[in-house]
Amino acid sequence: MLPTSNCTMSIKIAIILSGGSGSRFSRIMPKQYWFIDREIVLRRILHTFYMTHCFDYIICVVNEKYHQLSSMIASSISNYIHIITGGLTRQDSSHNAIKYLRQVIQQDSLDTSIVAIHDAARYLCTKELIQSSLENLDEHYDGVAPCIPTPDSTIIDGKYINRDRIKLIQTPQIFKFYPLYDSHNRSSNMSFTDDASMLQYHGYKIKFIPGDINNIKLTHYNNN
Q1: Which of 23, 66, 113, 224 is most exposed, with minimal Cβ within 10 Å?
Q2: How far apart are the C-alpha atoms of 206 and 201, rounded to whole Å?
């Protein structure tokens, strides 16, 4: 367990998804292990979450091939960051982390827990966005997802649509534990690109809040 948590009395858990192979990045090493601005991408985002002092647990989900390297990176920040192995897809990795939580946290504590899920490739995420996302989860919603408007004209099937209706979803996404757990258990034969869309599909309520245009996802080498 992490030594500090000053946001509320509920247990808060951060899951950092870093299991991607980086195939779109066109480099031997996955993007989350490259140096950008003299710092490893994964270390930067782990440190950002750690320094919010809002989380009782931080779990980093990684490709088995990079488990040792990830452990070294995490231990340079804190010995309280847990490293676990991911799955074949983002959804599998997220589910692995949720199943891991059931093993390390007592059930009565999990029932009232809050879980933040973040893609490590969004390494420019700020403490302010993390805290704002946490603060926006209330009794009326099961999850929170930040989003930004698209600056580009948009077409579907060759026809222009009103871009004011289009929003780009980001992470961190914040969830109450049980709706997240329930949705994953009901989605084993389904495919979702993020956890918020999964919860919404299963009837849970998601609150969309303003994101950060600088919170980009590192997908190509020239993003840095």
Answers
A1: 23
A2: 10
Cβ–Cβ < 8 Å for 146, 93: no
Continuous segment of H or E residues that includes residue 184:
helix 177-185
Sequence-ordered list of residues with C-beta below 8 angstroms from that of 17, at least 6 positions apart, any chain: 61, 86, 90, 93, 94, 97, 117, 118, 119, 120
In tens, the pLDDT along 140-162 reads: 999 999 999 999 999 999 999 99
- pLDDT at site 4: 45
Residue 179 lies in a domain: yes
Q: In this structure, is residue 117 part of a structural domain?
A: yes
Q: Are 59 and 16 a contacting pair, CB within 8 Å?
A: yes
Cite the beta strand spans of 150-222 per DSSP E.
154-156, 159-161, 167-169, 173-176, 206-210
- Whether 76 is covered by a domain: the verdict is yes
**How far is Cα 86 from Cα 19, in angstroms, rounded to an integer?**
6
* Residues 38-72: b if buried by 16+ CB within 10 A, e if exposed: eebbbbbbbbbbbebebbbbbbbbbbeebeebbee
Buried b (16+ CB within 10 A) or exposed e, 125-143: beeebbebbbebbeeebbb
Q: What pLDDT, on the 0 to 100 scale, is given for residue 56?
A: 94
Domain that holds residue 118: 12-127+172-191+215-223
Given this model, what pLDDT does residue 20 score?
64
pLDDT range class, residue 105, cuts 50, 70, 90: confident
Q: Give whole-number Cα distances, 2 to 49, 55, 77, 207, in Å.
A: 12, 7, 12, 28
Which residues are CB-contacts of 187 (< 8 A; sequence separation ≥ 6)? 91, 198, 201, 202
